[in-house]
Design a protein that fits this description.
alpha+beta; Herpes Virus-1; 4 domains; four-stranded mixed sheet; two-stranded antiparallel sheet; 23 helices
Amino acid sequence: RGFWVRMSLSLHFPSCSNATSQPQKTHELARNGSATHLSTNQLNLACLCKKKISCWRSQMTAALKVCLRQQLCRCFGLKSWQNTLTSPPQSYCQDHSPTQSLCVDSDFSLPQSCSICLDSIEPVLSYSVLKCPSCHGSWFHRDCVQHQAHSAGLFFFRCTLCNNKENFQQEMVRMGIYIPERDASWELEANAYSELLEVYNHCDSVICLCNEGRTYSKKGWFEVIRCCLCGSRGTHRKCSDLKLNTTDWACIDCINATDGKGQFSVIYVCLHLHVVSSALVNDRTFLLQQCVLPFLFFIRQLSVSRFKDEQHLTLPSAHRTGDATRKYFLDLLMQQIQNSVVFEGPSGSKNLALDSQALREDLYFDIGSLLALCLVHGGPPIGFFSHGLYQCLFNYPANCPLSLNHMTPETHFTQLVHRIAAAESLDELKEVMKASWEFLELAGCNRPVTSLDERETLVEDLVSFTMITRMQLPLQRLREGLHTLGVFDQVQLFPSIFFGVFCDAREVMTAETLDRLFTMNFSEQQETRNLETPIVSFWRHFLLECEVGRSSISLHDVLHFVTGADELPAVGLCPPPSISFLHHVRLEEQMENAVEWWDDGLFPQCKPATNHLLLPVTSTYKAFKSSMEQFKAAQYQENMTLP
């Protein structure tokens, strides 16, 4: 293993690597493995096989016992002799060779098999059995790890269990394992990964209509279209009755996996939502199928999927689209998250609660993932985080210690800290500390106090322990959940902007805020445009009356009518809301031009899928206001008639 031959000269690999003459040419010989003409100096490499080597211990100081053992060097292949291929090379006899120790607990279960070849080993550290210095759980034969080093090379050689590289390589070199400075053997093979460039190219339709066979693919009707979800199924456009410009197609297995039966995995949902996020603008119905239905799996895991009967509000038929249903679902989801067991405190200012069952079920990570997904996919602002929780998660404002006001009111720990903070004398402070010694001992603050001035420092330490130290694991898992779709990274970049999304997000909606959301689309004809211009003033005046309560409907009713959302989403409305105008159309024109959207009633109409509102064109504001207020009554009547 590992030697090169030319004519009658044979050189073992370690001999080449440790030769002192012309090292660069020698290394090229070892790395390339090619037979080249050797010079006179290079012939000295063979002398390494004839020299005697002595134990490295003999070169130590005279104060130590000298080992005078010498054996004929056989290219560092001596049994029970350990050779460290460093500069200069070092060789150790059996008595003085480096050893490893078992630095683990007594109840540690010793491995019974080699982590490389999986054959059985005797769990005793020796010359033939080595272990990883980092994880202590990876044990292996010396020959196995040496073979792995030759195969992986310096850049890929690491522990097979813990994946440690630096400490592992240093320990293996110390124990006499040679690591060649070259790339891995699998990286040097020609076209080693060529099969990764091959794509699935087979028609899996029940009946293939292509005369050239199922593997034939040419642009047009008989081009093989792969499943856009799994990529492991394909079909000709003609065989599945697809349109000529169809590029997105899903196989029957993937369709069955997203039919709402709840058979989803968390990994599938997170990865798939990342894929379909690009379809937010163009295909809302597709997003409903691929986003909302997988969300139901998370809700089932949170045991909040069964909402109360009074929460199942019936949506009007105009809002029974994918976009409106998704927004309605995300609103209910945000309410359930706010009321879950992982949060405590008053509404609108929640802190994290320490719950052992939630930790066991990893509910904090699920909550963080759901909050991130709600924000990205157009859900309402979170709005219920307390300032203290936001600071613990994102360190904003930076370098600002938490105070007693950040703690959750009316909890046992908060009451104890309040009593300490309210102490007015040193004797009273000592009495309160004596009564709360268990809490102080748990927080590591059970220390003697000599003056009342130490009270503020003690309170600050207790607040930090209650909200940060005690909550380290829940905070960490919540942060990791918020990393979903990159939300946490964006919040860290702009913490001041996202502060209004996580905290105090329930801002009062004003007429000016709602009016700025809409873009006016006037008609091109000047005569029609002149009729539409006054309606803009009617619309703004109507919003002002809704704001001050002089109308039977509110601004939230208007927003819900147009977009299906009760609150403005944290990421804004997409597509941006727009307004067009609804003119009188005679029955003859309706029949002639096949007008389906307009009618003679002149009620405001909307297209929630595109956030588009059609305002009736009237001659007076009184008629405009009456028409706008009647849509709510028509909505209510429609809900009552629905089954």
